[in-house]
Amino acid sequence: MKKPRIAILSTNSADCQCITEAALSLGFRVTVTSEVSELLSVLEKETPLLLFCDSVPANGGGTLRTIANAWDRSASIVLVVPPDIKPGHLKALKPWVHDYLTTPVLREAAAVRMRHALQAKTLEQAAGKAEKTLRGWVAGWESAISSYDPATGDRAVMVRDLARMILRQDAGDLDRPACLMLARANGMNGLDCEVFTASQAKEANGPVRITLPEMALFLRMKAESRLFHANYFDRGGTFRDFQSLFPPELLRLSGEVHNLAGLAVDGGYVVALNFGRPACAEDVLRLKGHTLPRILLETTSRSLHNLSDAFLVTIRALAIAADSQGDNGAHIGRMNRYAETLAQGMSMPDRFVRDLSYSAQLHDVGKMFMPSGLLEKPFRLTSDEYDIIRQHPALGAGVLEGSGVLRVARTIALTHHECWDGSGYPAGLAGNAIPIEGAISKVADVYDALRTPRAYRPAFSHDDARRIILDGDGDAGGTQPNHFNPEVLRVFRNNADRFDEICDRAGLSAPVQVQ
Ligand SMILES: [Fe+2]
Ligand SMILES: [Fe+2]
């Protein structure tokens, strides 16, 4: 690295010589001139560490301002003044002057100014580097948190972003590692590992997956501390000894390992290999800083999925318990798939499709309140019995009352027997007053009812069920096309084959998985 430069603007040859000797003894490069224009051309090419400038009239306030403006803000001007300078003159020059020396200049006094300037520059560079690192972290966290939805987030994308944040982007970036390994114990004394190299991260490629035996080195380091770093020369062994600590499968990807930094976290390890200079404790902290927010997101996501699974299993159990058909959930499973098909065909948002596809199965949850035997009656119902049955939508809505995640299910339970022409129940809603969730579920429910055998009639074929829904069954009190939302009916017509597939694939008695 180039040594910093000391510039001297002076007509005093004794001072120039003294300052030059001090600078050279400290290893600095030196530029000496008595011309402002020559100094300005030096400043154009390079920022000196320090400028010693004497206070002859030509170097008064105007000149200093010109120099200061041409210079980097972090640069310093040391003004060399006569011992009898007037305080008012010094005050006038203060905005552009960092320090003073009196002439004749003492060599040691000049050297002290240079050493202080170097220390200040070193600290300034360290602060600038720390700020850059912090900005990088904040940007990384912001991007991870804002772009990752724990409910639907893709872990692979998050891990790839993490690798890109941590790994070396260009060959000169010695503070970053060339290889990153995310390892998790697989319960069989091994580690399932995702290994990224700098080039993979740069090209936004995914990791190479390998299984490694649990490494003695990591175990030992973990026993000592959950945070660890090591260099090949740390423990007194040879470079070859250090390589023997790593499985060949890893060395094939990482190349020879010179150093590493890592942490044991969340049942596994995050390990960075081959920094461009010896690894140190700060590297571990940096790694931790990058990793923990993402692990938090991943843990939240896992918990959310577990809760979501538990929720789906619970409402499926409720739907099966309430189902009167005794088919172990096959009807309600098909309801989910039919409703999903219709919602997708109507280009509904993904969230709506998802909510609808798990909610439709609860459409008849109110039937659990129906008198025993009524639903299994092998003959057509009497008018009084039918009045009782007509209560099941409101009863079902009551069961599902009060929960935000069951809002769609409640709407479906309440409105899946309403008809577009206003002839349905329980409220006799008509047209667009019927929520679309209910209108979709109605078509799905009627199709499945037609395809299912009843005690008083056999099952209809797909073609017959399709015709009855689209054209009616010819019975004044039966199914009519004007019972259905015309838009839902249009999508049903266009996707009728898919309905047949769902019915065929699921069978009429086999349980259908909730997705
Ligand atoms: Fe119903
Ligand atoms: Fe049903």
The domain tally reads 3
Tally of individual helices: 20
CATH topology of the largest domain: Hypothetical protein af1432
Low-confidence stretches: 508-515
Main sheet record: 6 strands, antiparallel
Arithmetic mean pLDDT: 85
Helix share bin: 40-55%
Instruction: State the distance separating the first and last CA atoms.
Output: 61 Å
By CATH, the architecture of the largest domain is named Orthogonal Bundle
CATH superfamily of the largest domain: Hypothetical protein af1432
CA radius of gyration is 39 Å
Major sheet strand order:
8-7-6-11-10-9
Which overall shape is indicated by the principal axes computed on the Cα atoms?
elongated
The total count of strands amounts to 11
Ligand species: fe (ii) ion
* SS class: alpha/beta
CATH class of the largest domain: Mainly Alpha
Task: Tell me the fraction of residues in β-strands, as a range.
Answer: 5-15%
Features:
515 residues, alpha/beta, Rossmann fold, Beta-Lactamase, Hypothetical protein af1432, six-stranded antiparallel β-sheet, five-stranded parallel β-sheet, 50% helix, elongated, disordered C terminus, binds fe (ii) ion
How is the secondary structure organized here?
Layout (H helix, E strand, L loop, with lengths): L4 E5 L3 H13 L3 E5 L2 H10 L4 E5 L6 H10 L5 E6 L5 H7 L5 E4 L4 H41 L7 H12 L10 E9 L4 E8 H5 L5 E6 L2 H9 L2 E5 L7 H5 L4 H7 L4 E7 L2 E8 L5 H42 L7 H16 L4 H10 L23 H7 L2 H8 L7 H9 L20 H16 L10 H10 L14 H9 L1 H11 L9
Parallel strand pairs: 1-2, 1-3, 3-4, 4-5
Antiparallel strand pairs: 6-7, 6-11, 7-8, 9-10, 10-11
Helix pairs in contact: 1-5, 5-6, 5-11, 6-11, 12-13, 12-17, 12-20, 13-16, 15-16, 16-17, 17-18
The chain binds fe (ii) ion (FE2) (2 copies).
